[in-house]
Design brief:
The chain is built from 27 helices and 21 strands. The protein is an alpha+beta fold and about 800 residues long. Strand 20 and strand 21 form a beta hairpin. Helix 8 packs across helix 13, helix 14 packs across helix 17 and helix 19 crosses helix 24. The chain starts with a strand and ends with a helix.
Length: about 800
C-alpha cells in the first residue's frame, strides 16, 4: 500500500511517498506550469559595441487569442504577458533596464481595438506581424529583472518508446526552480523545428515582457481584462483602465473573439546564463532587439532612443547621470527627482510638455555631448555654436577630458571613440566623467535657485497626492510614462465620437473630473512656486494686489520657467558655458604654473552670483529682470499692486537676439551669464573679461546694423545715402539701449564713452586663445538672425538635429 502526502509552494511541489519497501522517498515536481506549443527557430545576435562573438537567440513561434475552450494556454498567456510598466515598479528599475517606448493607450483604444475587432472595415484582409516577447528571469523577489538566466543544462531523453526520435531539452535552472525549458525532437542528429516542440515556463520566476508590438498586445490585453472579472484589479494596471472603459463586455460580446489570433514570438538567450563571462546580458540583448526592430517601424522618439542606445558613450553617461537622480529618496538633501526630467519628449521637440519637469533627456544629452566633444573654436562670441556634433566620433578632446590614456592605457585610449568602446572602458570612464562633469550637471539642478524652487514645489505636490482616491492624477503628473499626453489625447478622441451615448457621457464626465482635478493641482503648483520664488524679497508686498501675487507678476514668473529656465539653450549655457571658461583657465594656469580656483569652488561662486540675479532679492530687481527678459513693469495709477507691460527696445530680444532661442543659440545666454559673473580668481576673471568684451563688441555692431536697416526702411532711404550725423545718431541710440540693458542686469557706473572702442575690430579682437575669426562676426550675427527669422516663418526648427 502506498501513502502519498504533498506540500505546495510558489516554486515547486515536493512529494513524500512510502513505497512497498517502506523507504521514504523525496521527489521534486517541476515549477514549469505554462506549456506552449509551436515552431522553434533560432539565429545569432552580436553586441556591435564590444564586437563580441554572436549569441544564440532561440524562440518559439506560437499564437495567442480568445479561444479558451480548445486552448487553455491562451488565457494563461494573456494573464502572463504584460508590458514593462505593469511588470516592474518604475522606481525599482535603473535606466540600463529600460527596454521600450511608452504605450499610447489613447491610440490603442481609438484605433487598434476597432481594427482588431474589424469594427469599421469588414471584409478586408488583415495581417498582423508577431508580438515579440522576451522570457525575462527575475530576481528572487520578482521585483526587478535579472541579468542572466539560472544555469542552462541540455538533456536528452532516449527513444525508449520506439517513436523514432529522441527528445532534447534546454532547461534553465534545476528542477523545481526552472525559469524555462525548450523540448524538441531530434532524429538522426536532425532537429525538428515544427513538430512536437514545446516551450515550458515558470510564471513565478519568468516574466513575459513585450518588447515589440506592445500596442497590438495592449489591445488584446485590454479586451481580455474587460471581459474578465477583476481584470484591472492589479495596482499597476488600474491607472490605465479608464482608457478602455468604453469597451464594455456587452459591446465586446457583439464580436466573435474566438476568431482573433495574433502570432507571438517568445525569445530566449540560452547562452546568457550565470556561467556566461562576456559583457552582454539579457536586458541589453532585449534592448538591442527592440532598437533593431524599430529602425523601420513607427519611429521611436529621439529621447527614448538616446536612453536605449548602448553604442553611444554620450548616451551611456546620460543613463548613468539620470540613474543617480532616479536613485534619490527621502534621505536626499536635494528636491531634484526623476519626474523633474521628461524622459520621452514627443515628436522630438525640445519644449517640455510635462508641467513637473524642469529638464529633459534631450536637454541633458545635449549638455553632455558638448561637455565631451566641443572644441574652443566652436564658440565665437555670441554667434550660434558651430559644428555637427552628431558626426563627431573620433575626437581627441573626448579622450583628453576623460583622461583615457591613464585610465585605459595607451592602446585602448587610441582606439576609443564615441561609438567604439567596451563596457569595461565605459564603466571606468564613467567614474572620471562623474567626477569631472556629471557631478556639476546635478549641482546645476540642485543649487541653481529657480530649479531648486521648482523641484521643491513638485516634491511637495507629489507628497500631497499620496493616498489620493484618484490614482490617475498622480500618474498623469509623475509616472514618467507619458500618461498625461495620452490622457489628453484620449479625451480629444472621445469628443469626436457621435452619438454621445449615456455610457460615453459617463466616461467623459469622469475624465473631465480628473482633468479638472489635475488642473487644480497645477494651479496649486504654480502658485506655490511663485510664492517661493518671491520669498527672498522683504518687500514682496509691492508685487501683490489684495495680498495675492499680481497677475502680471505671476505671468512673468511662469514665462521665466516655460520660456527660459527650461530650455536646452539656457541649460547648455549654464553648464557648458561654465566649463568653456573653466577649461581654458585651467590650461592657462598650467602653462604659467600658477594656482587656480578648484572647479567646486568656481562653480559654487558662479551659481551663487547667477542666483542673485535670477531670484531677485527686491521688488525693484524683479522689475529689472522682467525688463531684461520680457518687458518693463509699471504700476497702474490708483491701483496698487496692479501692473501693466511697458514695451522696451533694450531687452534681451532687442539687444542680444531677435530670433528663437534654439539649442545651438546657447552662446547668447552664455553672454548674459558673463555679465553677471565676477570670478574672484584672476585667471578665470581675465578670460571672462576678454570674452565679455568681445561679445559686447559683437552685439553693438550687430545692433547698429539692425537699427540702421530699420531706419533706412522707415525713411525710405538707402544706407549709402545716410549722412554722418544720421549714422552717429543711430550709433548713440544703440549705445543707450545697450547701456540700459546692462543697467537692468545690475551693472553700475556705465557711461557711453566706455564703449567707444566696441565698434572697432582692431581694438576688441577675438580672444587670443580661441583663434582668428573666419569672417566679420557682426555680419554673421545679422545673417544668422535673418536666416532664423525665415525658418520661423516656415514653422521653425524644434529638434537639435534639425537645428544643425
Amino acid at each position: 500500500m502506498n501513502i502519498s502526502m504533498w506540500r505546495t509552494s510558489s516554486i515547486a511541489s515536493t512529494f513524500l511517498s512510502v513505497g512497498a519497501n517502506n523507504m521514504l522517498k523525496l521527489s521534486t515536481q517541476s515549477a514549469l506550469t505554462l506549456t506552449l506549443q509551436g515552431s522553434m527557430g533560432r539565429f545569432r545576435v552580436s553586441n556591435e559595441t564590444t564586437n563580441s562573438e554572436s549569441l544564440e537567440l532561440r524562440y518559439l513561434q506560437t499564437h495567442v487569442g480568445f479561444d479558451f475552450e480548445d486552448s487553455a494556454a491562451n488565457e494563461v498567456l494573456l494573464d502572463t504577458m504584460q508590458p514593462v510598466r505593469e511588470l516592474f515598479d518604475f522606481k525599482m528599475l535603473n535606466f540600463n533596464e529600460i527596454m521600450q517606448r511608452d504605450i499610447d493607450d489613447a491610440r490603442v483604444s481609438k484605433d487598434l481595438i476597432p481594427y482588431i475587432l474589424d469594427e469599421h472595415s469588414q471584409g478586408s484582409v488583415k495581417l498582423f506581424p508577431p508580438l515579440i516577447v522576451v522570457a525575462l528571469p527575475t530576481e528572487s523577489q520578482g521585483t526587478r529583472p535579472a541579468g542572466l538566466y539560472p544555469k542552462i543544462e541540455t538533456t536528452v531523453q532516449p527513444d525508449v518508446a520506439g517513436n523514432g526520435y529522441e527528445m532534447h531539452s534546454i532547461r534553465s535552472g534545476p528542477i523545481g526552480q526552472e525559469t524555462f525549458e525548450f523540448e524538441f525532437p531530434v532524429q538522426a542528429n536532425k532537429t525538428f523545428y515544427h513538430d512536437l516542440v514545446k516551450l515550458k515556463l515558470n510564471p513565478n520566476r519568468t516574466k513575459l515582457v513585450i518588447i515589440d508590438g506592445q500596442h497590438r498586445a495592449m489591445a488584446l490585453l485590454a479586451l481580455y481584462r474587460n471581459i474578465k472579472n477583476g481584470g484591472w484589479s492589479d495596482a499597476r494596471r488600474k491607472p490605465y483602465e479608464d482608457f478602455y472603459s468604453l469597451w464594455t463586455p456587452s459591446r465586446i460580446g457583439a464580436f466573435s473573439l474566438k476568431e482573433i489570433q495574433l502570432p507571438v514570438m517568445i525569445c530566449t538567450y540560452p547562452q546568457l546564463d550565470v556561467t556566461y563571462q562576456g559583457s552582454m546580458d539579457i536586458i541589453k540583448a532585449a534592448r538591442a532587439t527592440f532598437l533593431t526592430l524599430n529602425k523601420t517601424a513607427k519611429r521611436v522618439s529621439e529621447s527614448r532612443n538616446r536612453l536605449l542606445n548602448d553604442k553611444d558613450l554620450v548616451a551611456v553617461f546620460l543613463r548613468q547621470t539620470l540613474g543617480l537622480v532616479k536613485s534619490r529618496d527621502s534621505s536626499s538633501t536635494s528636491a531634484f527627482r526623476i519626474w523633474n526630467v521628461e524622459l520621452d519628449q514627443s515628436a522630438d521637440k525640445q519644449k517640455l510638455e510635462s508641467p513637473v519637469a524642469c529638464t529633459g533627456v534631450s536637454h541633458v544629452y545635449y549638455v553632455i555631448e558638448h561637455l565631451l566633444l566641443s572644441v574652443d573654436e566652436d564658440l565665437k562670441g555670441v554667434t550660434a555654436r558651430s559644428g555637427k556634433f552628431h558626426k563627431r566620433t573620433k575626437n581627441p578632446e573626448l579622450r583628453s577630458r576623460l583622461n583615457a590614456t591613464d585610465i585605459l592605457g595607451s592602446d585602448k585610449a587610441q582606439t576609443l571613440q564615441r561609438d567604439v568602446f567596451s563596457e569595461e572602458s565605459a564603466e571606468a570612464l564613467w567614474k572620471v566623467f562623474e567626477e569631472r562633469y556629471g557631478a556639476y550637471i546635478l549641482k546645476a539642478f540642485d543649487t541653481f535657485a529657480p530649479y531648486s524652487i521648482h523641484n521643491t514645489a513638485t516634491l511637495n505636490i507629489s507628497k500631497a497626492l499620496e493616498g489620493n482616491a484618484n490614482p490617475q492624477i498622480s500618474n498623469i503628473l509623475f509616472d514618467q510614462q507619458g500618461t498625461g499626453r495620452t490622457f489628453n489625447a484620449h479625451r480629444e478622441n472621445l469628443q469626436q465620437i457621435s452619438p454621445v451615448t449615456p455610457e460615453l457621457q459617463s466616461v467623459m464626465t469622469r475624465l473631465e473630473g480628473t482633468a479638472k482635478a489635475v488642473d487644480n493641482i497645477l494651479q496649486e503648483l504654480y502658485s506655490a512656486r511663485a510664492e517661493a520664488y518671491l520669498a527672498p524679497m522683504p518687500d514682496r508686498s509691492k508685487l501683490r494686489q489684495d495680498k495675492v501675487i499680481s497677475k502680471l507678476v505671476a505671468t512673468v514668473i511662469k514665462r521665466l520657467y516655460d520660456e527660459v529656465f527650461s530650455t536646452v539653450a539656457f541649460q547648455a549655457a549654464l553648464v557648458d558655458g561654465f566649463f568653456y571658461i573653466m577649461e581654458r583657465a585651467e590650461r592657462k594656469a598650467a602653462q604659467s604654473t600658477t594656482s587656480i580656483m578648484s572647479r567646486d569652488d568656481g562653480f559654487a561662486e558662479y551659481i551663487q552670483q547667477l542666483n542673485a540675479y535670477f531670484v531677485p532679492a527686491t521688488a525693484e530687481k524683479f522689475k529689472k529682470l522682467s525688463a531684461v527678459m520680457f518687458f518693463g513693469l509699471q504700476e497702474k495709477e490708483n491701483s496698487p499692486g496692479e501692473f501693466e507691460m511697458v514695451p522696451s527696445n533694450s531687452n534681451f530680444r532687442s539687444v542680444v537676439y531677435q530670433g528663437e532661442m534654439k539649442p545651438d543659440e546657447w552662446p547668447r545666454y552664455r553672454y548674459l551669464f558673463l555679465e553677471l559673473w565676477t570670478p574672484s580668481d584672476l585667471t578665470i576673471a581675465d578670460i571672462v573679461d576678454a570674452d565679455k568684451a568681445f561679445c559686447r563688441s559683437q552685439l553693438l555692431k550687430s545692433l547698429r546694423v539692425r537699427r540702421q536697416e530699420a531706419f533706412c526702411e522707415a525713411n525710405n532711404k538707402a544706407e549709402a545715402n545716410l549722412s554722418p550725423t544720421e549714422k552717429e545718431a543711430i550709433k548713440t541710440e544703440c549705445l543707450e539701449s545697450f547701456i540700459t540693458f546692462l543697467r537692468n542686469l545690475g551693472l553700475t557706473g556705465l557711461k557711453t564713452a566706455m564703449f567707444k572702442d566696441a565698434f572697432d575690430d582692431a581694438k576688441v579682437p577675438l580672444p587670443s586663445d580661441i583663434g582668428e575669426p573666419e569672417e566679420s562676426l557682426e555680419v554673421k550675427v545679422v545673417a544668422e538672425e535673418l536666416a532664423n527669422a525665415e525658418a520661423e516663418s516656415d514653422g521653425g526648427v524644434e529638434s537639435v538635429e534639425a537645428a544643425e
